[in-house]
């Protein structure tokens, strides 16, 4: 029997597709360990509460020994009350004919409200992981409302892009995915993201020495990673959910323990101006996490002119997104 105090975790959009795949590994101790009790604070819009009750029933029926309480609510203060971690997954999906800018404006108010509720009710050192799209800018919006919380505690998820990129490279090289390291995603979680193959390694060798088809790396590989979400929707008729949930688990694991020596993790974090990326943008960088659970942007990564151009193009897109929501940033 463990004597640890429960860790409190909020998940928004908990009755959605990603929520359904995320809650069970969380409840099983996948992120916080097999001896860490957990309280789940699940948020949905009022129309989603009935479905959420069904999810709660399934969580109860799984008899997770670590779960000490499950709350289902539409109230931000109740949902984020005293939480240590918040996964912001819920957001409105892109409707037919909607442009990215429309989506950003539609979702903005959700993240204003949630940022304010986090500010009022969460623990001061809460760690926030934004998954709901457009996740970088949604994260920026919530962060701007939560003045009590360290701005560095707001991050957005590009781990799915990192995982997708690693998997493609492993397939191409014919090696297990565990052999691929230092594959960093730069920029926005959008088709402008840049998966940096030039600094990646395979089994201790430069990736570009192992995969010698550099034309493939510069074109098909990048396109495949950038367009993977769309390809899954085409194939499955639904957007990626289990892999996205798994990436959120990976993100939280990576943020809560030291990064293995020699490895990097991709996290969209507030830019400190590194690499000429405008300060404050929520931008995906290669990061490492220390024993205290603090991340740092990896310094002095050599970027070719090809890489710099891609990294900057994604920053330009994020600047335009920031501009589209400037009236609600507060
Ligand atoms: N960052 C990434 O890599 C990544 C990958 C895949 C999907 N996503 C995004 O994750 C989000 C969720 O995807 P999904 O497949 O679970 O969608 P979904 O539509 O199945 O579920 C979303 C849920 O959020 C709820 N919701 C909406 N507004 C809410 C609010 N204000 N508060 C609480 N709940 C709210 C909805 O009721 C719904 O149950 C989407 O925005 C999707 O684009 C991000």
Descriptive account of the structure:
- There is one protein chain.
- The protein has 330 residues and is of the alpha/beta class.
- It has two domains: 7-156, NAD(P)-binding Rossmann-like Domain (Rossmann fold), CATH 3.40.50.720; 159-324, L-2-Hydroxyisocaproate Dehydrogenase, Chain A, domain 2.
- It has twelve helices and 14 strands.
- A six-stranded parallel beta sheet has the order 3-2-1-4-5-6, sandwiched between helices.
- A hairpin with a 2-residue loop joins strand 10 and strand 11 (205-206).
- The N and C termini lie far apart (46 Å).
- The mean pLDDT is 96.
- The protein binds nicotinamide-adenine-dinucleotide.
- Nicotinamide-adenine-dinucleotide is lined by residues 12-13, 15-19, 43-45, 48, 89-93, 110, 131-133, 135, 157, 160, 189, 239-241, 244.
Domain tally = 2
Find the count of extended strands (DSSP E, 2+ residues): 14
Distance between the termini: 46 Å
Individual helix count:
12
As laid out across the biggest beta sheet, the strand order is 3-2-1-4-5-6
Largest sheet: 6 strands, parallel
Helix share, percent: 40-55%
What is CATH's topology name of the largest domain?
Answer: L-2-Hydroxyisocaproate Dehydrogenase, Chain A, domain 2
Structural class: alpha/beta
Elements, N to C (H/E)? EHEHEHEHEHEHEEEEEHHHHEEEHH
Q: Could you say which overall geometry the principal axes of the C-alpha atoms support?
A: globular
Instruction: Please state the second-level CATH architecture of the largest domain.
Output: Alpha-Beta Complex
Low-confidence stretches: none
């Amino acid at each position: 029997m463990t004597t640890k105090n429960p860790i409190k975790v909020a998940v928004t959009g908990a009755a959605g597709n990603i929520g359904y795949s995320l809650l069970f590994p969380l409840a099983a101790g996948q992120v916080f360990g097999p001896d860490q009790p957990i309280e789940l604070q699940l948020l949905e819009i009022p129309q989603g509460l009935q479905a959420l009750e069904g999810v709660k029933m399934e969580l109860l029926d799984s008899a997770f020994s670590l779960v000490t309480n499950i709350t289902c609510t539409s109230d931000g203060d109740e949902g984020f009350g005293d939480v240590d971690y918040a996964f912001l997954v819920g957001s409105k999906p892109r409707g037919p004919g909607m442009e990215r800018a429309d989506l950003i404006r539609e979702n903005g108010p959700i993240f204003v409200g949630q940022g304010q509720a986090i500010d009022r009710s969460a623990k001061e050192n809460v760690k926030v992981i934004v998954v709901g799209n457009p996740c970088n800018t949604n994260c920026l919006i919530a962060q701007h409302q939560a003045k009590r919380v360290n701005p560095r505690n707001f991050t957005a998820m590009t781990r799915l892009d990192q995982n997708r990129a690693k998997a493609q490279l492993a397939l191409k090289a014919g090696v297990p995915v565990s052999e691929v390291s230092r594959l960093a995603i730069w920029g926005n979680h959008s088709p402008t993201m840049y998966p940096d193959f030039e600094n990646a390694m395979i089994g201790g060798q430069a990736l570009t020495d192992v995969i010698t088809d550099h034309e493939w790396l510069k074109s098909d590989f990048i396109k495949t990673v950038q367009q993977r979400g769309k390809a899954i929707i085409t194939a499955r008729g639904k957007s990626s959910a289990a892999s996205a949930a798994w990436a959120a688990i990976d993100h939280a694991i990576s943020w809560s323990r030291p990064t293995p020596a020699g490895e990097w993790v991709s996290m969209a974090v507030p830019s400190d101006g590194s690499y000429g990326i405008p300060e404050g943008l929520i931008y995906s960088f290669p990061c490492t996490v220390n024993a205290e659970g603090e991340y740092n942007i990896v310094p002095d990564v050599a970027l070719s002119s090809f890489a710099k151009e891609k990294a900057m193009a994604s920053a330009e897109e994020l600047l335009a997104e920031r501009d589209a929501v400037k009236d609600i940033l507060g």
